Amino acid sequence: KIRLQKFAGHLAKLREEKGLSQRALSSRCQVDFGKISKIENGKANLVVTTLIELADGLGVHPRELLNIDFD
User: Fold this and answer.
1) For residues 20-55, b (16+ Cβ closer than 10 Å) or e, as one string?
2) pLDDT at 11 over 90
3) 55 touches 62 (CB < 8 A)
4) CA separation (Å) from 21 to 3, 60, 70, 71?
5) pLDDT higher for 30 or 71?
6) 70 pLDDT tier (thresholds 50, 70, 90)
7) CA 47-52-37 angle, 5° bins
8) Closest C-alpha among 4, 2, 10, 6 to residue 55
């Protein structure tokens, strides 16, 4: 659960740094706005394809989304 929350915060930070709302990010990738909201609130897990779509929407490499200290 803690790892999911860390990922959620990191995703939100990257999105905000790009100046994107959740809806704007959704329009740039194949991930529904509601799913992005759930992920950022730590209420939904995600699969690799969702990770790749989010990275594409943010214009970053998928490893950037995982570049967090999980310990």
Assistant:
1) bebeebbebbebeeebbeebbebeeebeeebbbbbb
2) yes
3) yes
4) 23, 16, 25, 28
5) 30
6) confident
7) 65
8) 10
Give the span between the Cα atoms of 5 and 29, in whole angstroms: 22
Q: Mean pLDDT of all residues in the chain?
A: 93
Residue in this structure with the two tokens 């915060």, named with its chain if needed: 9
Q: For residue 67, give the amino acid letter.
A: N
- The pLDDT tens digits of the residues spanning 35-69 come to 999 999 999 988 999 999 999 999 999 999 999 88
